[in-house]
Please model this.
Amino acid sequence: MSLRNMKREVKKDDFSILTKKGPEKSLVLPLKEKAGRGRGGRITVRHKGGRVKRLYRIINFGQEKLGIKGKVKVIEYDPNRTSFIALIKYEDGDRGYILYPKDLKIGDEIICAEKAEIKTGNRMKLKNIPIGTLLHNIELSPGKGGKIVRAAGTAAKIVGQEGKYAILEMPSKEIRRFFSECFASIGQVSREWKKDIPLGKAGRKRYKGIRPTVRGKAMRPVEHPHGGGKGRAPIGLKYPKTPWGKPARGVKTRKKKWSDRLIIKRRK
Model:
């Protein structure tokens, strides 16, 4: 049996809609791998490191080209995010990347304006978008740029307007208010099949910079509160703990935020 046939449950991604292999050179930056380390050089996030080298693509998440039409020139792969990206050429000659929404085609025109046609790829204020429209790349605060609903296959749905707020149903089914002056892009984010593609082998996880995770029970007592004992021993505690001795499960970690008052119905 050849090595090619020994890979378990490997499924290849569908890159047939991509039209260019390399990125636009003027829109990339070097990206230094931090390997889970903070400013002091200490590990602050465990199990990270050793990923493949990448270049960062500069994505236009906000309204930098307000009122200027653009045309879709290229659809590209971005190693830094789950969705594809689209290269836009604007009327003033500038080029920029946006998140590529599903069903947008090469040659289509898009625009970012306070009020525009309800068409995939266009970006406008929530107060001017009709109920039932699918949205992505949504602002949390006016003028701050899109912060949420940016992952592959995600889309929020506008379900109502209430004074200075628009009411949206999130991909998690949470229902919450957004300021009507916030901008959002029309359509669903591309590459919706991404969640169904298994990694297939441990090596693909290492390419992404994810290192092996060892169970606390398999460690020595000096390394983890769950460590020690012989064989498949229980943790020996009333409740599980983190490596630093804090409660690990069933403890609320969300701090009270100003945005809590905007949530109408929590996600299930």
Remarks:
- The first strand starts at residue 28 and ends at 30.
- The longest helix spans residues 202-207.
